[in-house]
Amino acid sequence: MDRTSFDTTAIETTQLGQLLLRVAGSAKTQQLFAMIEVDPRLLGPTSNQVSRAVLAQAMNMMLFAQNLSAVPEGARYVAEKLAAGSKVVFDHGALRTVDAARTGALPHGQQAFKRILEPLGFAVAHVYPLKKLKMTGRAYCHIDFPEVISQFFVSELHVEQFSINFQVAAERIVHKSRDPLEPQHHSLLLQLASQKELSFDDAAVLLPALVGCFDVQHEAPHLVDYETVLAESAEMAWISTEGNRFNHATDRVPHVIELADELRVKGYPIKDSVEISGSGAVRQTALKAAMVQRVFLDEKNHPITRTVPGSFYEFISRDKLPDSAQLDLRFDASNAQGIFKMTAAN
């Protein structure tokens, strides 16, 4: 996809820039535009209406920055990339959900994100069985600008496929989950789904609420429940502490194998191998997850702190489809399961 650099002094003349300025402030907006490549088609002039594509792009940019703030080695990589005169091409973000009978006020599994992604113009492009993990992945791709608005890889963990002890512990963790969306946000999402745009003021109200969905919605877990689910699923253990935060954000790069070698020489904590899809068209690797301090509750409900895996930063290379100018935007179930190992507890 042909992209041009964007003069950050002209941010305020675009609808996307104005929306981010209103919600994120001047300093953060300047940082986002300096860091992330934005297709010129998303840089239209200001108006009273905000399209679903512009709103989706604004949300994705904020989510990318949120992930980067949680992954110091990812931030280091991006800083070096910017210093060399390049920007990030944000390919996709990944998040995990729990498909359980009781998830409190939060819709179960991927339903919690389907309700926001579809009004924003995303649709499920492919479904990926992740049988080894007892999960299902869904790739949400933007209908209007599939190659330039980053995708979402939304995975569901199927609690009923695990042991009874696991099921009880998992539901104890998530059964009081909050819904970050209020009635006014649901109303705006219905309007967005119908009209494919919102007024500028309404978009500015909805945007921070959407970003807030990508967070932990349940209370601090009991350590015994964490250890119970960890024994069967590193993924559920990760959800226990990190919730629906971005598991990783991904930079689309031309030559991921060469980049991995370069980063390894520089001392980055990068995966030992590159995951290559069955077709060979999609190649992925990642930095190891940042280790973070999280609070648990002991048997007397006293808070205790443990070090656990947090989020990470990923790299992907995509070839074009055979006999086509379009990128192969698909994923690979085997690749995904290999990448998921980056958050396994040590």
UniProtKB/TrEMBL annotation:
GO MF, one example: dioxygenase activity
Keyword set includes Oxidoreductase: yes
EC number of this enzyme: 1.13.11.93
Pfam families: HGLS
Keywords assigned by UniProt, alphabetized: Dioxygenase, Iron, Oxidoreductase
Record CDD domains: VOC_like
Cofactor: Fe(2+)
Domain of life: Bacteria
InterPro entries listed in its UniProt record: HGLS
Protein family membership: Belongs to the 2-oxoadipate dioxygenase/decarboxylase family.
Protein name listed in UniProt: 2-oxoadipate dioxygenase/decarboxylase
Organism, scientific name: Iodobacter fluviatilis
